Protein: ADP-dependent (S)-NAD(P)H-hydrate dehydratase
Organism: Streptococcus mitis
Amino acid sequence: MKVIDQALLEKVIIERSCTSHKGDYGRLLLLGGTYPYGGAIIMAALAAVKSGAGLVTVGTDRANIPALHSHLPEAMAFALQDQQLLKEQLEKAEVVLLGPGLRDDTFGENLVKQVFASLRQNQILIVDGGALTILARTSLSLPSNQLIITPHQKEWEKLSGIAIEKQNEGTTFSALTSFPQGTILVEKGAATRIWQVGQSDFYQLQVGGPYQATGGMGDTLAGMIAGFAGQFQQASLYERVAVVTHLHSAIAQELAQEHYVVLPTEISSHLPKIMKKISQKGT
């Protein structure tokens, strides 16, 4: 088991170059928030922007766009039903987050199929939430992109066939052999583990607790992962995912000293300040 320590945090979260611009920090496309789950994609978008993503575009239900813009004018948005815009944005994106608040229905299934079919090798794909449910139900074959999957225990049960009570290091390691080489798994639970297919070792969180058990926590983590996937190229994608997953729970743990329950949006709000502290320690 690998530990996420201060040295790894400082390796990933570095100060920005004075000559950089928004194009250097990731062009992200977030897809989800179909009725009645509009809040999920808003929380994911907030987390992506607060983690430092350069450009964030959201595809969601048209009726959800005013709410998104009122929370986050920094994000661009379009209606998922607009096929032309969807195709254009899928071509432009460097990182695609698919699934927060995506309803498991025919429309959702068709969207997942379309995204899987259209991605190029150099694009990073994060599959979360409703897209994981659709993936497990349809047995679609995963694209061989740089792939990150973020299931909670019930979603991992559906994906892997391992009952929750039998989920452990050994069963997960065995199940991962059927996933594309290089796939990163964020196995969320009381002690979240982060794996990469092809490596025998894994990272395990030493932070977090029951104050995180509230709706939107996973959507926020997915948005943070997307944000880190688009920047910090000096570290491996696996290291970036491990660090941001740690930060998500570490910030929650800090907030829980004064709060009975920690809201996902509060984690996003605190993220830039924590990242600043880490980047300064590393210099």
